[in-house]
Amino acid sequence: RSFARSLLRYLGFIFWGTAAAQAFGGVLVILMLKNYGYLFQESYLSLPGWLALATALILLPTGVLAVSISVKCSRNQQGTLMYLLLLLLCLEVSSATLARSYCLMTASQLESVMGYLVHQHNWTCSQDPGNSAVDVIQRKLQCCGVHNYTDWLKASSPSWHHPACVPESCCKEKHSHCRGDLGQGEQLSEEGCLKKLEGQLCFAMLYIFWFCTVLIILELLAGVSNGILMRHQPFHELRIL
C-alpha cells in the first residue's frame, strides 16, 4: 500500500509534465496540416492533434488528483480519478490509432498530389512565376521535384527551343544568382520534396503515437495503484456510483 501511494504521487507529477509534451505534439500536427493545407483537403487529418490537446487538458486535473490521493485517501477523489483514467485511455488509444493510420495513408496521397502540382506548374527558363504551391514547398523545404529534379524534366519535355531547366525555387538559398540552369547543378537542391514532406508529417504523427503508448502504460499503473488503495478502504455505501 505504501508503494502504491509513492507510485501514485510520482505518476501525478509525471502527468503534469507530460501534459505539456502532449500539447506540443497536438499543436505540431495541427499547425503542420494548416501550413500544408493545399496538399491535404481532408479536415479530419488534424483529429489526432485535437485529441492530443484534449488529453493534455485532462492530464492536469488527473495529476492533481493522483498527488492528492497519495497524501490523503478520499473515496470521491479515488472514484473520480478512475473515471478520468478511463477517459484518458479512450482518448489516447483513439489518438494513437488515428496517428499511425494517417501516417501510412498520407504517404501515398502526397506522391500523387505532388506529382499533379509538378505537371500543372507553368514556368519557363527565362521567366519563373515562383508563387505556386510547389514553389512555396520547394523554398521552404529546400527540395526539388517529387523524388528529384528529373521530375521537372519529364514535366517540361525539354527541346532545342525549351532548354532543360527547373524552377528557380529549386535553387539553394545561398545562391542568389541561380536561375534553375541544370548546367549549375551544385546550386540546386538535390533531394526531392516527397521524402522531406513524409518525414515531417510522419515525425509529428509518430510522436503522438509513441507518446500516447507510453502514457497508456503509465495510466494503467496509476489505475492499479489507485485500485490497491481503494481495496484497503472498502465501500460503506453505493452513493459514489
Helix content: 55-70%
Supply Rg. Answer: 26 Å
Number of helices: 6
- What does the oligomeric state look like here? single chain
- Major β-sheet annotation: none
Structural class, from secondary structure content? mainly alpha
Distance between the termini: 24 Å
List its traits.
single chain; 241 residues; mainly alpha; 6 helices; 0% strand; Tetraspanin_EC2_sf; membrane; transmembrane; Tetraspanin/Peripherin
Write up this protein.
It is a single chain. By secondary structure, the chain is mainly α. The chain has a domain at 1-117 and 202-232. It is built from 6 helices and no strands. The protein has helices at 2-35, 47-71, 75-120, 133-141, 150-156, 193-231. The longest helix has 46 residues, at 75-120. The radius of gyration is 26 Å and the shape is elongated.
Write the layout of secondary structure elements.
Elements: H1 2-35, H2 47-71, H3 75-120, H4 133-141, H5 150-156, H6 193-231
Helix pairs in contact: 1-2, 1-6, 2-3, 2-6, 3-5, 3-6
